[in-house]
Amino acid sequence: NIDRQWQRLKEERISIEDQDLVYKKYTISRSTDFVLKEVGWFTLKGSFKSVETYFLEPVELILRKALI
Fold first, then answer.
1. 16 or 25: which carries more pLDDT confidence?
2. Distance between CA atoms of 21 and 5, rounded to whole angstroms?
3. pLDDT at position 11 over 50
4. Alpha helix positions (H), 1-68
5. Cα distance between residue 17 and residue 33, in whole Å
6. How far apart are alpha carbons 27 and 68 in whole angstroms?
7. What are the start-end ranges of the E strands in the chain?
8. Would you kindly state where each structural domain of the chain is located, as residue ranges?
9. Are 29 and 56 within 8 A, CB to CB?
10. Residue 48, Cβ neighbours under 10 Å: how many?
11. Is the pTM of this model over 0.70?
């Protein structure tokens, strides 16, 4: 259920690390019908620690959806 997946993303979206907000960055896998996959961390300071660096949507759109 896509709504349940987005709800899980919203619940997990924020982590506090050294007093800095860290957002999990997700991408959508078309092959598994909108299953969310964690690909790394995007911090408000603009740094990115990458696990995998591919996106099926722009990261801004991913974060905007995550914060709805």
1. 25
2. 22
3. yes
4. 2-12, 59-66
5. 32
6. 16
7. 14-17, 20-29, 35-43, 48-50
8. 2-66
9. yes
10. 13
11. no
The predicted-structure confidence for 17-62, as pLDDT tens digits, reads as follows: 333 334 444 444 444 333 334 444 444 444 444 444 334 445 555 5
- Token readout for 33 is 């019908």
Give the confidence band of 6 by pLDDT, cuts at 50, 70, 90. Answer: low
Other CB atoms within a 10 A radius of the CB of residue 61 amount to 10
| 56, two tokens | 């099926």
Amino acid identity, position 47: S
The CA–CA distances, whole Å, from 62 to 3, 18, 19 equal: 15, 24, 23
In terms of residues, how long is the chain? 68
